[in-house]
Design a protein that fits this description.
163 residues; alpha+beta; six-stranded antiparallel β-sheet; 26% helix; 30% strand
Length: 163
Amino acid sequence: MNSLHVKKGDNVLILAGKDKGKKGTIISASPKDNTVRVEGINVVTKHVKPRGAQQPGGISKEPGNVHVSNVQVVCPDCGKPTRVAHAIADGKKTRVCKHCGASLDKSGKAAAKKEKKTAKRTKKEAAPETTEEVKTVETAAEAPKKKPARKTAKKTETADKAE
């Protein structure tokens, strides 16, 4: 498989075609075909056949494919369209901007996962400040769960009918 210089979620500038000069975000990338779909770029009209009562047919507009050579990444730090360079940071290969050297992979899934983990740790480490908060937490955990009244009512109705 071929690798692309762009990823899903990157902001890109269109270099050629009817939408030349426009900017958008990549919705999907297809390394096999060397194409990407950019939000609001190369909008095509599709005639959709109905597939049942829940999915009616009609005419829909959606973004079409753009060849990867016709897009260029826009650096999130300096805001300039840039070619992608590669550098090794923390033992991992990352994409960087040729102009300012900023990482293009900051807003990726790995950064989001790290933020979630640190947020969870801070919540666990934060202890209740007063004794009242501790008591309310304990009583809520010790309180027995009540069964819904509806289930017991249905059982009595079925028992009456059987008799």
